[in-house]
Amino acid sequence: MVFSGRLSKACEECRAKRRKCDLVKPGCSQCARKGLPCPGYRDLSKLRIRDETIRVSEAVCKSNRIPTKHQIAKVPAKKIIYEESTAALYPMICLSQLTKDCAMAFFMTSYINSSIFESYLPDLYAQSRYEKDCLRLATEAVAIATFAHRIRSPKYAMHARNTYSKALAQTNAAIANSDTAILDKTLAAVLLLGLFESVAFQGDSSLNNWTSHTFGTLQLLRLRNKTKPENLQLARQLFIHASYNIRISCLQKAKPVPKELIDLEPLAADGNDSRPLAKLVPMLDQVVAIRCKAALGRTPELVLQALEMDTELGTFASALHEGMPLTPDADGTVPLVQYKDFMNHAFANRRIAKYNNSVRMMRLFLNDFISQGAAAVEAEMAGYMPLFEFGLGDLQATAANNIMQITRDVIQTIPMYLEHKDKGGKFAPSARVLFWPLSVTLSCTACPEPVRALIGAHLDKMGSDLNFPQAAAAAKVQLMDDTVTGAKDWLHLSYLG
């Protein structure tokens, strides 16, 4: 509460016009001369409360602005050097509380609704009430970054960067303390810092930072394993989230899953966990192992191993569909381009659609490897074919048919990420998870040209609607040259975000 000065005794009309009021009762002479009814005088003894939030916020913003050249000319030299260097590194941009609230609402309700964050972050954030807490700062940084990206505001993006720097400092301080390093909010903050890098993507530096944050969580998981968590369910959710990010990074780069993570899995596992992602993890490890071996060379044994793994994943996908069946799309959304017998289908929610696309990406890799690997080691494969009821040509044809069916299934999930046509029919923010699956379909040699054109059209619209043209361009590299891989090595960031 502040004292704003002595209250004026003048009538309301004179106060508004800033005239000197003679205070004559029942009405002042100034109003009488102008032929106006005098509104009378207020009771100064009554308590009055005035909202000064906007005025104070503007005053703070004004005081934090970077000084002009005229202002700098009046400041001593030593102070100039400090202020200029600080302004260049950390520009002070003040956002209103309303803007921050809008950013947080957008992030919590729209941006993470197909992410693992959706299952635990809102409740965890609500429990963190200290404004300089690493979790709150990290969440605020990502929320403002996503909002800035959505409305295409460089000013808000700069503020998000500034908040990210503060969050990084607070998170590092929490990790350095053995008591706070094992807390749920510390691990969640590290995961959020990784998400920030995918939102504010700036090339190789963002990819390297994301990788550092992601594999840094492994050390936190090791420390957390030595203590008993207060909230077992939340601890399990965080473990699955962190370990899944590590595994996807290994899959993308064809690197083995760290043995330390595999050793921690049984200790953190919940035998009653029926969530799809928990059941998918062991199969993901096997696919990563196959991809690592495939990078070293193709063998008949590896082709057969891939065939067995694809069969297992196909069975898992069928069971997943039985519990979460596809239903015809009835909300009025339509895809940008129709192709043959493709139909619009919808899952119960976008996160389930994302789980299904995870399985499909693994199967696409396996079937593409089966098709090409069997041809590469045709002579050696001849000795194994008597084990099957079909020949080598049938094996390759089956793999090609699987690729076509899986590609069709991926495309059928696209309408799930379109907003209702009454709202413009644009892609929702969560559609960013489609860039990587669509890129994987384009990388398969068996993907026909008409389907490639269809996918390319969707990617163009997604890049425009989501203000993410670089992701669309990276995914479409496969349309021009399916041997290029470097340009799309970071698309898994948008998928995991």
Give the C-alpha Rg: 30 Å
Shape: elongated
**Topology pattern, helix = H, strand = E:** HHHHHHHHHHHHHHHHEEHHHHHHH
Class derived from helix and strand content: mainly alpha
Averaged pLDDT: 79
Pfam families: Zn_clus
Protein name: Zn(2)-C6 fungal-type domain-containing protein
Organism: [Torrubiella] hemipterigena
Keywords: Nucleus
Question: Notable features of this structure?
Answer:
497 residues, Zn2-C6_fun-type_DNA-bd_sf, two-stranded antiparallel ribbon, mainly alpha, DNA-binding transcription factor activity, RNA polymerase II-specific, CD2-Gal4, 2 strands, zinc ion binding
Characterise this structure.
The chain has helices at 12-17, 29-33, 53-64, 69-72, 77-89, 97-111, 121-127, 134-151, 154-176, 178-181, 184-199, 204-224, 232-253, 259-268, 276-296, 300-323, 350-376, 378-381, 392-412, 435-443, 449-465, 469-480, 491-496; strands spanning 327-328, 345-346. α11 (184-199) packs parallel to α13 (232-253), α13 runs parallel beside α15 and α15 (276-296) packs antiparallel against α16. Mean pLDDT is 79; it is low at 66-90, 328-342 and 482-487. The longest helix is centred in the C-terminal third of the chain and has 27 residues, at 350-376. Among the domains are: 1-48, Zn(2)-C6 fungal-type DNA-binding domain (CD2-Gal4), CATH 4.10.240.10; 97-269, no CATH class. The chain is an all-alpha fold and 497 residues long. Helices cover 64% and strands 1% of the residues.
Layout of secondary structure:
Blueprint: H1 12-17, H2 29-33, H3 53-64, H4 69-72, H5 77-89, H6 97-111, H7 121-127, H8 134-151, H9 154-176, H10 178-181, H11 184-199, H12 204-224, H13 232-253, H14 259-268, H15 276-296, H16 300-323, E1 327-328, E2 345-346, H17 350-376, H18 378-381, H19 392-412, H20 435-443, H21 449-465, H22 469-480, H23 491-496
Antiparallel strand pairs: 1-2
Helix pairs in contact: 6-8, 8-9, 8-11, 9-11, 11-12, 11-13, 12-13, 13-15, 15-16, 15-17, 16-17, 17-19, 20-21, 20-22, 21-22
